[in-house]
UniProtKB/TrEMBL annotation:
Annotated family: Belongs to the ENTR1 family.
Gene (name only): Sdccag3_0
Coiled-coil segments: 19-99
Keyword check for Coiled coil: yes
Organism: Anhinga anhinga (Anhinga)
UniProt-listed GO biological process terms: positive regulation of cilium assembly; positive regulation of protein localization to cilium; regulation of cytokinesis
Protein name: Endosome-associated-trafficking regulator 1
Record has Metal-binding as a keyword: no
Length: 160
């Protein structure tokens, strides 16, 4: 009976040690789980902040692109008007050459002014078109960024 009692005590001690080891492992796993939860929450917050930042940038770039497009349209209209005006001045210049030499200097000045206006409009149009192209490239970059974010979120959902 003493031997059996000692054997049982030995088994109880072994089971207590095993139980304590398992409890330590369980506490470590619980700590790790809590750390992972905190890490995932932080990553989710960071991702959300990044998405909001990208959305703000997208809105800003969209506004810029619309503004550049409107400006380009306005400059194209102005350019067309100036080209018509230039044609009229050229026609007037031709008429003056054929019969009214005294007014030639006035016509020439008008043509020069129209030409200068036309060159200014063309220069401004080019600048606006460059801005529009730059805005479009920025929008493409943001679209690619958003695609990347979707892939990241899909990958993190698969990992859960």
């Amino acid at each position: 009976l003493k031997e059996e009692n000692a054997s049982l005590r030995s088994k109880i001690n072994k089971l207590q040690i095993f139980s304590e080891t398992q409890a330590d492992k369980m506490r470590k796993l619980e700590r790790k789980l809590e750390e992972n939860k905190i890490k995932e929450q932080k990553e989710a917050q960071d991702l959300e902040a990044m998405v909001q930042h990208v959305e703000q940038n997208l809105q800003l770039m969209t506004k810029r692109a619309v503004k550049a497009e409107n400006s380009a349209t306005k400059l194209k209209k102005e350019n067309a008007l100036l080209q018509i005006q230039l044609k009229n001045y050229k026609a007037e210049n031709e008429a003056l050459r054929s019969g009214q030499a005294a007014s030639l200097a006035v016509v020439k000045r008008n043509a020069d002014v129209a030409l200068q206006n036309l060159l200014t409009v063309i220069t401004n149009s080019r600048s606006s078109i460059k801005q529009l192209v730059s805005g479009a490239e920025s929008l493409q970059l943001v679209a690619d960024l958003l695609k990347s974010i979707d892939r990241i979120s899909e990958m993190s959902e698969d990992g859960q």
